[in-house]
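Dig into my protein:

:::
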Amino acid sequence: MLAVNGLIVLAGALSGTFLNVYLWKSKQDYAMIGWFTIAQQVAVGLTFWIGGKWVKQYNKMNALRAGVVLSGVFYLLVLWGGADIVHWIWPLGLLLGLAIGLFWLAFNVVYFEVTDRENRDLFNGWVGLLGSVTGIVGPWVSGLLITWLKGDKGYRLVFTISLVIYALCVVLSFFLKKRKNGGAYHWREPITQLQSKGSPWRLMTPGLIAQGVREGVFAFLIGLLVFVATKQEAKLGQFTLITSAISLLTYWLAGKWYKPRFRNTGMLAGALLLWIVILPLLWKTGYGALLIFGIGTSVFMPLYILPMTSSGFDLMGTNPETVEKRVELVVLRELSLMVGRLLGTFIFIIVLSISQAPLIITILMLALGAAPIGGWMFVRKLLKAEKSA
């Protein structure tokens, strides 16, 4: 599981880091990048909801492989279309969202099945660790290749390497054991959970939406701002190398020492500190200020994200009934994140359609960056209940 995850993240680190830059160089339009992100998120949410039936009642490993294959198809189309892909933002975004949705739906269900409350933080720490390693190697190598080969040739080579990694990931996935199928798929379960007064998902869902508000925009905006500030792909690779190297250490420490009883306090501290590190951008949005922000995010993100992730999956193992409905609850979790990401990205598009001044972008980041604090406010009761238990 960790190896498959590592390869997928590596392919994304190699190409995904520079995909938005590639689009930007073809057409310098923040709104276009935003709509590309929205297309992805719509497809991800629908794929989780509709694909949940396949994953629960049939072969979830085939869903995982289909996601990997479609990711490869996406990059094939990017290679074929070249700079003209800016005219196909919606279909390409939907295709990439479909690929992402199929893979992570299957992966999250299997992840729940092979972990438990005691080792879930450890597993998440290792996932973060591998993500940091690939984040160190992938963007740095991509940035060097694009710089050395000057432009389109470099991008095409990077996209081709990702395509090869996706093929290797498909092969490796056959070493994962086939999982048992579940019972009937309950299409309305996400709605049922939200309508039930005693359901803990009535607190977890708005917390996840708040998480999505921040990450939906920051996931593509930060790398783009680094490139806009420096005009160098190598600098973006360097930025990602430094921040990922720090994440490597912080996720390792979190996986080793972050216990469930620390989740409530740790998550609040992480949310506050993630907001504070945005403040230097009020004075300047140059490379140095962005690097301070990136380093701060790498240090404090595990404090926030590990409790949020682990607690959500812990709710799926509360009793035999929730275990049986794990697929539907994974779908509910992803739909919640999707709503938040869409909300954040819509706000981004609306604000930047009015003004694209650096100060406006920074104020927008401060507003969206405060969302994790709201997320903690929703889930704190669940975290306190976990500590008492």
